[in-house]
Automatic annotation (TrEMBL):
<feature type="region of interest" description="Disordered">
    <location>
        <begin position="166"/>
        <end position="192"/>
    </location>
</feature>
<keyword id="KW-0472">Membrane</keyword>
<dbReference type="InterPro" id="IPR011990">
    <property type="entry name" value="TPR-like_helical_dom_sf"/>
</dbReference>
<keyword id="KW-1133">Transmembrane helix</keyword>
<protein>
    <submittedName>
        <fullName>DUF2892 domain-containing protein</fullName>
    </submittedName>
</protein>
<feature type="transmembrane region" description="Helical">
    <location>
        <begin position="26"/>
        <end position="45"/>
    </location>
</feature>
<keyword id="KW-0812">Transmembrane</keyword>
<feature type="transmembrane region" description="Helical">
    <location>
        <begin position="5"/>
        <end position="20"/>
    </location>
</feature>
<feature type="compositionally biased region" description="Polar residues">
    <location>
        <begin position="169"/>
        <end position="178"/>
    </location>
</feature>
């Protein structure tokens, strides 16, 4: 994994060589080298391993996505801030299947670093709301759910948000499971 600065240095070197090609009269070569330099600039802003991990996740291949993310050894040095957010976001999605506490840590870090798309931010907050709800922190879950619904402008998460709200309403009802509530002593008094 290359440091993010190396990509910019390579792009600058290729761009300088493209300018040299233009001055020598090789216009086609110069254009080709400018396009090549633009690839390195693109990869500075969109990390190739994160893009490949997203492709694996679209196919529900969690092991393949984990393999690509593990190729990033030092995310702080190799990734810009938003990419670090997506790095943690992807880890949170993969870990949420098995370890809720660790997934919560990854999602919180992803939100603090920032995600460039509102849909991804809404998804992270929805997952955090689900984790908070499962840990019986209903007020925090409700707050995160409201934030997620505000961020979901295209309505892609509407069904999941409705389902989560219904689950929260069901669980906030009384905890009576067997008709007659109260203590054992009060039930004995009623039967007399």
């Amino acid at each position: 994994m290359y440091n993010k600065i190396i990509k910019l240095i390579i792009a600058a070197g290729i761009l300088a060589y493209a300018i040299y090609q233009f001055t020598e009269g090789y216009i086609g070569n110069g254009i080709m080298f400018i396009l090549l330099a633009s690839i390195f600039v693109f990869l500075y802003f969109k990390n190739e391993f994160i893009l490949l991990a997203f492709l694996k996740l679209r196919k529900q291949d969690f092991e393949g996505a984990k393999k690509w993310l593990n190729k990033i050894k030092k995310p702080e040095a190799a990734l810009v801030k938003k990419q670090q957010g997506y790095y943690n976001y992807l880890h949170g999605i993969m870990v949420s299947q098995s370890n809720m506490t660790e997934a919560e840590k990854y999602f919180k870090k992803a939100i603090s670093l920032g995600l460039s798309m509102d849909h991804d931010l809404a998804m992270a907050k929805l997952n955090l709301a689900g984790i908070a709800f499962s840990k019986r922190r209903k007020q925090e879950a409700q707050k995160l759910l409201n934030e997620a619904s505000k961020l979901d402008k295209q309505g892609m998460l509407t069904d999941q948000i409705k389902m989560m709200k219904q689950n929260m309403k069901r669980s906030s009802g009384p905890n009576q499971q067997f008709g007659a509530g109260g203590s054992l002593r009060s039930q004995k008094r009623r039967s007399r």
